[in-house]
Amino acid sequence: MVSKRTYLLGSLFVLFLWAQSGHAQTTAQAYVAAHQDWAIEAMHQFGVPASVILAIAMHESANGTSKVATYLNNHFGIKGVNHSKQIRSSYKGYDAVKDSYDDFIHYLKVHRSFASLFTQYTSYDYRNWVLGIQRGGYASSKVWARHILALIEKHQLFTLDNRPADYVDSEPSTMKNSASVTSIGYIVKKGDTLSSIAKRHNTTIKKIKDINGLRTDRLQIGQRLKI
After folding, report:
1. Which of 153, 101, 164, 98 is nearest to 130 (CA)?
2. CA separation for the pair 39, 33 (Å, rounded)
3. To the nearest whole number, what is the mean pLDDT of the chain?
4. What is the pTM of this model?
């Protein structure tokens, strides 16, 4: 029989976990509310999905609560010079958090490992952006992209992206099958051809036909394609 003391301790532990979970959710929501305008502005100006910008900042700065974020205004884990007397760190220091956001975009644009992403992917293809940033060596962790994608989907940050009305999302990226992570969906519109769709999504006609089981190049308006 479980003693009252054991039962009480178990109940308190459950309440503690519940409170911690609620606090983390509130902190994340507050972070998004405070910084989403900067992310959306950068998306419209440079083409990086707002969801990607926010999720990386949330992950790297612990929703703005890490020491590096607190003392250096660094929300993206970018390394460099700082003159802080409060902490010793190899991370770059900024006068304001907005400067950190601006420098993140600059960092992606000037490094060859990431610069091609601006022409390869749209401002709403957040999955390929995240995977591309990981491939470029932004983080050493092999599961970094998985964490970023999980944040985007958990907090539905993709709703901030500049998505067309006919965009069809792919299967959740949290699935173990990596092929489903990189695939996206597309609805055929008037004037579309396999050639134009392949060029737009940086793929080939053969790949589109293979993944969709197509035997001809003929398309129908409203047809859903996996890319």
Report:
1. 153
2. 11
3. 83
4. 0.67
